[in-house]
Amino acid sequence: MARMAEYWNHNVAYHPVVLDAVPAGCAAALDIGCGDGLLVRKLAARAGRVTGLDRSAPMIDLARRLSAGIGNTSFVEADLLAHDLPAGGYDFVCAVATVHHMDFTRAVTEMARLVRPGGRLAIVGLARNHTPLDWLISGFGVPVAQANRLRPGRGDPADVPMMDPDMSWGQVRAEADRLLPGARFRRHLLWRYSVLWTKH
Ligand SMILES: C[S@@+](CC[C@H](N)C(=O)[O-])C[C@H]1O[C@@H](n2cnc3c(N)ncnc32)[C@H](O)[C@@H]1O
Q1: If you take atom 20 of ligand 1, which residue's CA is the nearest one?
Q2: Whose CA is nearest to atom 1 of ligand 1?
Q3: Is 68 helix (H, G, I), strand (E, B) or coil?
Q4: Three-class SS of residue 197?
Q5: Antiparallel, parallel or unpaired: β 115-125 and 90-96
Q6: Which residues line ligand 1 (CB under 6 A)?
Q7: Which of 43, 71, 80, 111 is most open to solvent, judged by the fewest CB atoms within 10 Å of its CB?
Q8: How far is the CA of 145 from the centre of ligand 1 (A)?
Q9: Alpha carbon nearest to ligand 1 atom 9, residue
């Protein structure tokens, strides 16, 4: 029986956005920057097989331990931008709180390459405030974050690599629109955006 480490944070809050984007009949899914594998374990109920990829050896070790016993999951310790994954090899590719650790253009281009025609890409990410409107919108998240501070299970996995985003909300949106024509960009309350894209 697998040990399920369940917790809630501002990334986990948007797992439903990712899970709802999984296409029907998804045979192969890939989670980039999978961390401790929580989302991989959730995806395992919706896809034939799920691969979690992360460049952090401790994270991959943890993900493997926590996912032991879930037969349709596997984990790869690798850098997305230096690893040779099959073009069009996945029905669904996702990344949560990971793209800002890499060059955005290269990361999104590579993720799009990995999706098969007809498949989907889902990105949940962080961006930085730049304009007064950015700051105003971010302010609306403060009471919601405060209200969730004492929520049971509130927390982050220990030792997960984190960094601050470089790109502003506007820059992310413009570059996502350029790289992923027809993508749906949304800015969410708890300081995350999502980009959903179907490859045609
Ligand atoms: C902030 S954590 C997010 C982990 C998980 N997705 C979550 O939502 O909790 C970012 C993860 O991306 C991984 N990562 C960063 N750059 C990467 C790259 N180039 N290739 C693969 N993984 C990467 C880090 O090791 C880290 O585990």
Answers
A1: 79
A2: 162
A3: coil
A4: strand
A5: parallel
A6: 11, 32-35, 53-56, 59, 79-81, 96-98, 101-102, 160-162
A7: 71
A8: 22
A9: 35
What distance in Å separates the CA atoms of residue 98 and residue 141, rounded to the nearest whole number?
21
Alpha helices (H) along the chain? 15-20, 38-43, 57-67, 104-114, 132-147, 169-179
| CA–CA gap between residue 9 and residue 96 (Å, rounded) | 12
**Residues 7, 157 contacting (CB under 8 angstroms):** yes
pLDDT band at 5 (very low <50, low <70, confident <90, very high): low
Distance 91 CA to ligand 1 centre (A): 21
Q: Cα separations (Å) of 159 from 35, 58, 64, 114? A: 10, 8, 16, 28
Which strands make up the sheet holding 115-125, listed edge to edge? Answer: 73-77, 49-54, 28-32, 90-96, 115-125, 193-198, 184-187
Give pTM, 2 decimals.
0.96
Each residue of 119-167: pLDDT tens digit?
A: 999 999 999 999 999 999 999 999 999 999 888 899 888 889 999 999 9
